[in-house]
């Protein structure tokens, strides 16, 4: 009798007692310690040079897609990642992975408002030089504070350990879910993003290597994922046989107190206190709005744990991190499209108010890289070290000024700071982001600005001239051309082109209006956040501090 009643109940409604291991951490170590490590001179496994018989090896001419193709290449897929389905998926083409903010895997952006342009060299122009600034590939989560996957896992584990936890319906998967993520480092998929970027960069810009008469210097910072990202880029760009011989990798120390233009927050105290943290204050207000329906819904499927808004943020984060680390996540399909839009916006708020135009310490943090850029563009060594630049590294060896190609690896927050310093105002056009709703006319989307492997490319060109002299510059972010309307002297141009001298003097003017000392070091509180729209403390209010 009892059995037959049970059979009438849909399986998804039966609450399941959870093993006390739910949420526990599982880690794997490879190779197994007893296996030892491989050595390059193992007589049992001679390397290719000893074995010989390599067959033919000519590599042919450099690829030059940027000048020879008729259609620009675009990245539209996510390699081996399983594309998640949101809850109640409709007929549309909604893509959860495009709603993960800075945790979105790389994908080409369609347009930043110049729909008739692409990254192929415009007619009448010739490419002389490129400046690449890119983010590392997908990483494991950092931190265990509230709202992180680790925090959610330990909350769940604590509840399961008391023996009272019961899950049902869409949360049933939690009964044997364990926390499998590492911390901080590059994931296997992140490795692929960097390899892909290196390959794409060689296929697009390989021709420029002909302009080198010594080895290129590429730069990264010392964190493990930064070094791994740079080396994987180099493997993609130079090939696995050559990458150690074909270029120099500069690794700049990334640590508190060290000057480093690619990790500039470390020497800007206001990036690391309540001012820098403002984005978390703002986005917490929004989380309380957009996650209320999900809190109600999911709470019905769990007993023995009172879910909080932070737990739900942690669950959305877990979808993002499990997907880019493990290839698949059960957490993605417990939130609907609207909730994923809410999560994307939660990240937009974080970046706007902590790492973007809405934070008064942010324009200052991009000053060091922009000083370096101007130094490279004008081939004039930096002589005053008054930002995050490091005088020890400012020499021909570690900071050459005559390369046809520059490659720098950095972080999401440094990239968005540099966009603010460069006054890429098309991103911030519609002003401060409200914390109680998603605005209809939004222009600031973090998944387009700073996804994993995000990359900004400056193309230096000679246009409509027989001379080899560079005449123009333009900027391409994630394969879409950036309008340069915020830089004085750069007129509206359908290809995003700006005359080089106007660009240089516009940026010099921009640097002159940024008060590095004040914005990074002064003791102030954030005034009305609506007054901060270009990453600076409002000059008119400085006298009150
Ligand atoms: C500058 O860089 C050098 C080389 O990495 C390092 O030894 C030195 O500590 C750095 N100085 C500062 C102030 O960061
Ligand atoms: C590091 O930056 C500070 C502040 O801009 C500057 O005073 C100092 O000289 C720099 N140190 C080096 C080694 O460049
Ligand atoms: C930066 O952009 C803002 C908004 O377009 C503009 O008012 C300001 O003059 C720009 N700054 C410079 C130095 O071009
Ligand atoms: C840094 O030095 C340069 C060159 O002397 C100067 O033009 C600029 O105003 C200085 N910037 C700051 C933030 O002091
Ligand atoms: C900043 O100013 C406030 C108010 O005057 C003061 O209480 C605080 O100690 C100051 N903080 C620092 C780091 O000087």
Short description:
The chain has 17 helices and eleven strands. By secondary structure, it is of the alpha+beta class.
Structure characterization notes:
- With 545 residues, the chain is α+β, with helices and mostly antiparallel strands.
- It is 32% helix and 10% strand.
- It has helices at 2-8, 48-51, 65-68, 149-161, 188-205, 224-238, 278-290, 292-299, 309-326, 337-355, 362-365, 367-378, 412-421, 425-428, 446-449, 500-513, 516-521, and strands spanning 16-17, 125-135, 166-167, 217-221, 248-252, 302-303, 405-410, 455-463, 472-477, 480-481, 498-499.
- Strands 2, 7, 8, 9, 10 and 11 form a 6-stranded mixed β-sheet that branches. A 3-stranded antiparallel β-sheet has the order 1-3-6, with no helix packed on it.
- The radius of gyration is 25 Å and the shape is globular.
- The N and C termini lie far apart (77 Å).
